[in-house]
Design brief:
60 residues, 1 helix, Ribosomal_bL32_bact, structural constituent of ribosome
Length: 60
């Protein structure tokens, strides 16, 4: 039975995986603010799904 002469390094093993790809983030146009924003995130103006999100009370 064949045995490798040397151990395969982590760098060599990780280069075998070619099915990992960089994907672009999903961006949607928000009609309420007129800006583009990422999906499932609060916009910079504080809107989520067309509604204004109130800031949570600070724990004081």
């Amino acid at each position: 039975m064949a045995v490798p002469a040397r151990r395969t390094s982590k760098a060599k093993k990780n280069k075998r995986r070619t099915h990992y790809k960089v994907t672009a983030p999903t961006v949607k146009f928000d009609e309420t603010t007129g800006d583009y924003s990422r999906s499932h995130r609060v916009s910079l103006k504080g809107y989520y799904k067309g509604r204004k999100i109130e800031k949570a009370a600070s724990a004081e």
